């Protein structure tokens, strides 16, 4: 079975369906992040997926194989890159996204299902296709703690991406606007923060989805 092709009715994926959650490279059209995930819920107002521990994924690296985060910030986005297969380390991640929203919200736990934090990943609104969803990361993020406090993350990377021409003024404005909107949701403690997802647990019968050979295939049809 190909990823995402066991969907439910009306173009929706049934719980337990494996799909791909992918990101395009910044300033390019190639897929450089691909993560097989399992659908938790797929409804008109929410897509929830589970990234299981140990899942084989695709991630960007420098052309010589060096991990991206080890490269100094000044040259991190200008050095030639490649991709490589790797395993998702640590505990799993629950990802939540609402159609048309320029961010997704990720939930992290420590060992023993001790809830750690929410993570707001600012990005292009997800585009759906038969095998999953695609987006482009916008560098800037927000970490939200169980006591409802929050702080910006990766502002240095966002600034460097602007200097390197990967984020122009128009996009920077949209990203900042999205960030402010997300902060308003956090301040009012709206969904999904108020929905109790930190108490969610995956179905123990779910297998860890595999990474398909054609993980970088071009979607035949894309919709928001």
TrEMBL record:
Keywords: Hydrolase. The keyword Nucleotidyltransferase does not apply. InterPro entries: DUF402, FomD-like_sf, Ntdp-like. One of its GO terms (molecular function) is hydrolase activity. Residues 70-189 form the DUF402 domain. Pfam families: DUF402 (PF04167). It comes from the Bacteria. PANTHER family: PTHR39159, UPF0374 PROTEIN YGAC. This is DUF402 domain-containing protein. It comes from Streptomyces capillispiralis.
């Amino acid at each position: 079975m190909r990823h995402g092709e066991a969907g439910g009715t009306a173009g929706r994926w049934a719980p337990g369906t494996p799909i791909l959650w992918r990101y395009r490279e910044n300033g390019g059209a190639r897929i450089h992040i691909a993560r097989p995930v399992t659908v938790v819920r797929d409804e008109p107002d929410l897509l929830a997926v589970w990234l299981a521990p140990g899942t084989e994924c695709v991630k960007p690296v420098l052309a010589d194989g060096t991990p991206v985060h080890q490269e100094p910030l000044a040259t991190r986005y200008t050095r030639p890159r490649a991709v490589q297969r790797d395993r998702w380390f640590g505990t799993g991640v629950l990802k939540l996204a609402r159609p048309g929203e320029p961010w997704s919200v990720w939930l992290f736990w420590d060992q023993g299902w001790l809830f750690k934090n929410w993570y707001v990943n600012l990005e292009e609104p997800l585009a759906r296709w038969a095998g999953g969803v695609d987006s482009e990361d916008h560098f800037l993020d927000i970490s939200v703690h169980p006591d409802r406090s929050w702080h910006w993350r990766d502002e240095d990377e966002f600034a460097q991406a602007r200097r390197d021409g990967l984020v122009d003024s128009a996009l920077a404005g949209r990203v900042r606007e999205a960030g402010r909107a997300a902060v308003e949701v956090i301040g009012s403690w709206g969904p999904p923060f108020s929905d109790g997802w930190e108490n969610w647990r995956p179905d123990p019968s779910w297998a860890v989805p595999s990474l398909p050979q054609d993980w970088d295939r071009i979607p035949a049809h894309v919709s928001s």
